Amino acid sequence: MKRLLLPLAFALLASPALAVRPDEMLPDPGQEARARELSQGLRCLVCRNESIDDSDADLAHDLRVLLRDRIAAGDSDSQAVDYIVARYGEFVLLNPTTKGANLILWLAGPAALLAGAGLAFIITRRRAAAPEAAGLTEQDKARLADLMKE
Amino acid sequence: MIVELGHFALILAFVVALIQTVLPLIGAQRNDPLLMAVAGPAATTQFLLIAVSFGALTYALVTSDFSLRLVVNNSHTLKPMLYKVAGVWGNHEGSLLLWVLALSFYGATAHWFGGQLPARLKARVLAVQGAVAVAFLAFMLWTSNPFLRLEYPPMNGHDMNPLLQDPGLAFHPPFLYFGYVGLSMAFAFAVAALIEGKVDAAWGRWVRPWTLVAWLFLTIGITMGSLWAYYELGWGGFWFWDPVENASFMPWLIATALLHSAIVVEKRESLKAWTILLAILAFGFSLIGTFIVRSGVITSVHAFASDPTRGMFVLGILAVFVGGALTLFAARAGQLESKGVFAMVSRETGLVLNNLLLTVACFVVFIGTIWPLIAEILWSRAVSVGPPFFNAAFMPFMIALAVILPIGAVLPWKRADLGRAMRPFVGALAVAIAAALLAYALTSGQSALGPLGVALAVWLVAGAVVDLWQRCGRGSFASRLGRLTRLPRADLGKTVAHAGMGVTIFGIVALTSWAVEDIRVLKVGESFTLGAYQVQLQGVHDEPGPNYTSRVADMLVTKDGAEVAVMHPAKRTYPVAAMATTEAAIRPGVFGDIYLVVGDPQDGGGYAVRSYLKPFADWLWLGGLMMALGGVLSLTDRRYRVAAGARRTVVGVPAE
C-alpha cells in the first residue's frame, strides 16, 4: 500500500548502484547461479526487508562478495549460508528456520486449516441434519396479509 | 486564512461526527424518529466539512505555502503540479485527511442511497460510521494535524520523495484508502445488525454493494501498487511480501471471503454469524494495516511516519473498535439463527471452503508479518520472515483455491451431485493438462512450478467459460449467444473475475519461472544478445528535468537485424531530496516485456547494464483489472439498480 515514504536505504545513498554489480559476479555461471539463488534468501541488514540480491546498499554488496568468496572457495550451499549466519545471526535469514519456536510459525497455517476444516465439517453436518426451516412465522404471515391487502 | 478555515472545518467535522454517533444511537434505542433522523444530515455535513478541509490543504500545497510545516517537509516550488496535488496524500498527515474524507464520503453515500434501509438500521449504521470518524479525527487533531504553521517559514521546501513522484503512485494511495475505508461500511452494518440482533437476506443484499465497492478499490489499488513496483524500483519485482504490502493484502483476502459469504446470507440465509465476523475482521485488518504502517513497529521497505505515540493511538482505536465489536459478537452471535439447510456437497459448502482457504491464507500472511515482533518480545530472538516463507506457506492455499474454484462455482444450492457437476468440465480439464504439457515441453523442464501454474491458470479461465456457457442453457449456438447477452450482470461479473484470477496466476508463473536476466558492463557502441534480441548501447547523454537531472542511455534493440525499438533507460538525480532513482525502459508486449536498466559508469569505462525479458508480465496486472471489472459488472447488476430505483417510486417496499 503506501509505498509512500521511500525506502530509507535509498535515502542514505546519494547514488545507488545496481543491486548485483557486474564486477562482483563469479566467472563460473553455475556458481554464480547458486550465489544468486542463495542471496535471494539473505537479508540486507541495514535495509528494510530487502534481500541482498535486490538491495543497493553497500553492506548488501559486501555480503554478496562474501557469499561468492565462500562459494568460490568450494563451500556447499548450506556451508556458505551457515558461515554468514554465524557472523550476522539468524536475522539475516529471510526464510526462517524451523528450529524452536519458529515451528509455531511454520505450523500455524496447516493447524489453522485443520481446525477450520474440522469446525466447518461439524457445522455443515449439523446444517445438513437440521430440519427444513419451518416456513413463515406468525409475524411473517401477518405481514404478508398486510402486503396482500395493499 | 484558507488554511485556518480548513483547520476549523476539521474541528467542526469532529464535533459533527460526535453528534452523528451519540444522538442516532439513543434515538434507535428509544425508537425516537427525530433523533434517528439526525444521522443522515450529520453524515452529509461531516463529509462537506472534511471536503472543505481537504480543499484547503490542497490549496496550501498548490500555492506552496511554506508557512505550513507539512508543505515545507513534502513540497518544493519546482515540483510538477501533478505531484503538488498528489503530495496532499503523499505524507502521513495528509493521507489521514484523505482517509477521513473517504470515511465521511462512505457515510454520506449510506445516507444518499440508503433510502430503502429501515430507519433504525440506517441510524445505527451511520452512528457506527460516525464513531469511527470521531476516533480518526481525534487521531488527526491530537497527533497528526496537517494544518500546523511554522513560526519562521523557509524560502523553499524539502521536496517529496522522488520515488513517489510518479503518475502511477500519485493515484495508487487514494484507491487503497477508498478500499480500506470502504470496509468500514461492512463493519458498520455488522455492528448495527449485532445491536439489532437480526440478520436476514435483506441485510446480506445491503451490505454487499459496499463490500463490493471497497473490494473493487482494494483490487485496483493493489494492482497499481504492484505495477508501480515493477517499473519504478528498477529490477522488475512485482510483490515483495513487505509488511506494508501485506497490510493491504490481508483486508483484500478477508474482503474477498466476505463477498462470497454475503452471497450465502443473501440467497440462503445461512452463514450469518460467520459473515458478521468476517465483516468485523475485514475492517479490523484495515486498522491493523494502518497500525503497521504508521507505528513503525515492523520494519518495512516503505516506512511511513514512524512514531510510537501515533502507533499507540492507532492501537487504541483498533482495541476499542475490533475488541468492542468482537465482544458484541460473542454476546449476540447466538441469536443469529440460520435458516437455510444444506447438504455436505452443495454451493454452500463450496463457498465455506472458499472462505476457509481465504481466511487461513490471510492468517498465514498475518502471522508471518507479525512473527518478528512476537519472536522479539517472547524470546528476544531476532528473526526475519521474508518472501521464501510466504511463498511456501501461502501458495498452497491459493493452489487449492484455484483447483476447487470452477467446480464450486457451479454446484447447485442446497444439495449437489459432485459427479454430475464435474461432467461439463472434462473438456476444461483436458485443455488445462494439455497446456501444462505444452509449457513443459517448450521450456524443457526448467521449473516444475511453471507447468503446474499454467495448468491452474488455464483451468480457471476455461472453467469460467464453461460455467458461462452452461448458464446459457441448451439449444442452438445462436440461441445460447442470445441468452448470453441477457444473463444477469452479476453472472458475467463472476465469470470475468474468476477468469481474471487465472490470468493473474498465469502472469505470476510466467514472470517468476521464465524471466531472462543479464547483468554486464557495456561500453558505448557495444552490443550483446538477450534471448532472441540484440541490444546495443548507442550513447549516453544528460537531460535536465523540472526538479531533477537525468542521465539517459539510448539502446537499440534488434531482432534478426530488424529494429524492434530504441529504448531510453535513465537514472535521475533529485538534488533537493538528495536521492537518485532508476527509470527502467520497458517495451511492453503481449508476449512479454523488454526491460532495460542503466546504472553507474564503471571504472574501466562503460556502464553497468541490467536487462531482462519478462514473459507475459503484463498479464499479471491485466488479471487484476479483470477481477476489478468483474466487480464493476456485479455492482451494476439489475438487483441493485432496481432496488435503487424502487426507492423513488414505491414507498416502504422491503428489498426481501
What would you note in describing this structure?
The complex is a heterodimer of chains A (150) and B (656). Chain A is mainly alpha-helical and 150 residues long. Chain A folds into 2 domains: 85 residues, Cytochrome C biogenesis protein (Helicase, Ruva Protein, domain 3, Orthogonal Bundle), CATH 1.10.8.640; 48 residues, no CATH class. Chain A has 6 helices and no strands. In chain A, helix 2 crosses helix 3. Chain B is α+β, with helices and mostly antiparallel strands. Helices cover 64% and strands 11% of the residues of chain B. Chain B has 22 helices and 10 strands. In chain B, the strands form 2 sheets. In chain B, strands 2, 3, 4, 5, 6 and 7 form a 6-stranded antiparallel sheet that branches. A 4-stranded antiparallel sheet of chain B has the order 1-10-9-8. In chain B, helix 6 runs antiparallel to helix 7 and helix 12 packs antiparallel against helix 13. The longest helix of chain B is centred in the middle third of the chain and has 33 residues. Chains A and B meet through helix 1 and helix 5 of A and helix 9, helix 10, helix 11, helix 14 and helix 15 of B.
Could you name the key traits of this structure?
heterodimer, A: 150 residues, mainly alpha, Helicase, Ruva Protein, domain 3, 55% helix, disordered N terminus, B: 656 residues, alpha+beta, 3 domains, 6-stranded antiparallel β-sheet, 4-stranded antiparallel β-sheet, 10 strands, 64% helix, 11% strand, globular, disordered C terminus
